[in-house]
Amino acid sequence: MQSYYEVLGVARTATAAELKSAYRKLAKQLHPDVNGGTAEAEQRFKKLKEAYETLSDPEKRQAYDLGGNTSGTGRAGSAESQPGSKTAGQAKAADYKFDPAKAAQSFDRFFGFHPDSKKRSSDASGASGTKRNPLDMTDRFNQFFGKR
Questions:
Q1: Number of domains observed in the structure of the chain
Q2: Are residues 86 and 105 located together in one domain of the fold?
Q3: DSSP per residue over 49-106, as a string?
Q4: How much of the chain, in percent, has pLDDT values that exceed 70?
Q5: Does 64 share its domain with 122?
Q6: Residue 95: CB partners within 8 Å, gap ≥ 6?
Q7: N or C end of the chain, less CB within 10 A?
Q8: 57 and 120 co-located in one domain
């Protein structure tokens, strides 16, 4: 995989002006409108843009130079480019198991009744003995429109 410096055709010690000049020159050559709008031309242009955005920002450039992945697309040596490795999002998704009982319990706690049986829960009844739906706007509606 090419480094961002190779994509732009500059040395690692290039100044901001040199980066900008190289980007503009290559952007004119690699723009998809100039190259027939093919998917390959579009990918090359996106890679060029990504390289310039990373290297033109001093913080992102420093992170990139230290071996960090600022692009989200993976770099040689990063965990994302290693075969069989999982990113944090993939690991979190793989560990999550949906439990319908917990979903029903959460529904019951929030709305005040079980979604299957439609029975009101008895554990959290209010002072008057009836549990109210937290989304119930009946009182506000009646107050606004004058019904009592």
A1: 2
A2: no
A3: HHHHHHHHSHHHHHHHHTT---SSS--TTSGGGSTT---HHHHHHHH----HHHHHHH
A4: 65
A5: no
A6: none
A7: C
A8: no
The secondary structure element, H or E, covering residue 118 is: none
Q: What is the mean pLDDT of the chain?
A: 74
128 Cβ neighbours under 8 A, 6+ residues apart:
none
Q: Who's near 47: CB < 8 A, 6+ residues apart?
A: 2, 7
Same domain, 137 and 115: yes
Q: Which of 36, 35, 5 is nearest to 22 (CA)?
A: 5
Question: What pTM does this model have?
Answer: 0.46
Residue 120: beta bridge partners? 113
Which residue among 51, 69, 93 closes a domain? 93
Q: How far apart are CA 110 and CA 106, in angstroms?
A: 6
Which tokens in the block code for residue 73? 């697309």
Domain encompassing residue 132: 100-145
Do both 17 and 74 map to the same domain?
Answer: yes
pLDDT band at 127 (very low <50, low <70, confident <90, very high): very low
Which of these, 57, 56, 73, 74, lies nearest to 19 by C-alpha position? 56
Task: Tell me the C-alpha distance between 140 and 131, whole Å.
Answer: 17
